[in-house]
Amino acid sequence: MKSRILIGSLLVIAIIAGGFAYTQFIQTPSPAQTENSRTISVTFAIESVLPAHAADVAAGTTVLELLRAESAEKGFTLAEKEYAGLGILVEQIGEYKNGTDSKYWHYYVNGKLAPVGVDAYVLQSGDAIEWKFHAPDESL
Q: What would the DSSP string read from start to end of 91-129?
């Protein structure tokens, strides 16, 4: 009789402990989930198309993803082309298309010409992203 009570008690304890462990597993987000659910704030502007404004995005968002989202939300034209081994090139924003008057779209991060392609730069909290339409030799 005592052994049945002991076994029953151990079984109840095991069930409770297992249930607790399971709920902790389900409720605790993984580091990837935590990173992806975190929101950061950046400043975003497009010369002659969109004035500077604050934009809140999920951590891990690229400049290209933000540009696409802004285009969909604000309704301006966006054309892009992928080049094998090079990435994506933005060819048109709004009414301004690359090659017009020898001008092309360039993006700047915190006042400096971006060092990587638009699909490679992952936004950091506080970044100021600005798109400018100018000839390549007119970069600031």
A: EEETTEETTGGG-EEEEEETTEE-SS-TTTPBP-TT-EE
Residues (pLDDT < 50) of the chain are: 6, 10-12, 20-30, 32-34
Show the tokens assigned to 102. Answer: 């020898």
- Name which of 117, 57, 45 is nearest 88 in CA terms: 117
Smallest CA-to-CA distance from 78 within 46, 51, 52, 103 is with: 46
What is the amino acid identity at position 111? Answer: G
Strand partners, 55: 42
Is 87 exposed, middle or buried (CB count within 10 Å of its CB: 0-12, 13-18, 19+)? middle
Q: What is the pLDDT of residue 65?
A: 98
How many CA atoms does the CB half-sphere of 72 hold within 13 Å?
Answer: 6
pLDDT of residue 14: 52
What letters, b where the CB count within 10 A reaches 16 and e where it falls short, cover 44-83?
Answer: bbbbebbeeeebebeeebbbbbbbeebbeeeebebebeee
The sign of the torsion formed by the CA atoms of 42, 46, 52, 57 equals: negative
